[in-house]
Design a protein that fits this description.
This is 16S/18S rRNA aminocarboxypropyltransferase Tsr3 C-terminal domain-containing protein. The protein is built from four helices and five strands. The chain is α/β, with parallel strands linked by helices. It has one domain. The longest helix is centred in the C-terminal third of the chain and has 12 residues.
């Protein structure tokens, strides 16, 4: 994945119970423009200029393009305490993208708006008008995700963004 523009790094905070082997954003590790933090995080400074991807906030738009993104990577059950730790970071939400990831939780019901983390990062970059080139290359359900969201992707981007 390459980008010719400079933005604040996208910070992905990973819960320690997430298995790296099953982590959909693992292929982004080491990619310029992405930082991975392990939860819990000791922060001493506010995350000025960042938005946290989440449910219930204003939509993320191209006007937010130059802001940093904070993405929490955990199961929905584990995400609550992570959200509390970053409640000072304003939330921005995604359009109604559909997941291709086959979610099955026996203990906790996933929200209908829930996406795999890589899907959420892709959707956020698309909504911001940032390059998504190569982002889904290592994602097993990438083609299916693009297919089931083709209309939303077209209306969000027009043209020029690819897997």
């Amino acid at each position: 994945m390459t980008s010719h523009e400079e933005f604040p790094p996208t910070i992905i905070v990973v819960h320690p119970k997430e298995k790296r082997s099953k982590c959909s954003v693992e292929p982004l590790r080491g990619t310029p423009g992405f930082e991975f933090w392990k939860f819990p995080v000791s922060r001493t400074e506010p995350m000025t200029g960042y938005y946290r991807l989440g449910l219930g906030g204003p939509l993320l738009t191209p006007e937010d393009r130059n802001s940093g993104l904070l993405v929490l990577d955990a199961t929905w059950k584990l995400a609550g305490p992570m959200e509390e730790a970053f409640d000072d970071v304003p939330i921005r939400s995604l359009k109604p993208w559909k997941t291709a990831y086959p979610r099955k939780s026996k203990l906790f019901e996933d929200p209908a708006e829930g996406l795999a983390t890589i899907e959420a990062v892709f959707a956020a970059y698309a909504q911001l008008g940032r390059s998504t080139d190569g982002m889904l290359d290592s994602y097993y359900w990438g083609e299916q995700f693009l297919e089931i969201n083709s209309e939303l992707l077209s209306s969000t981007l027009g043209t020029g963004t690819s897997k």
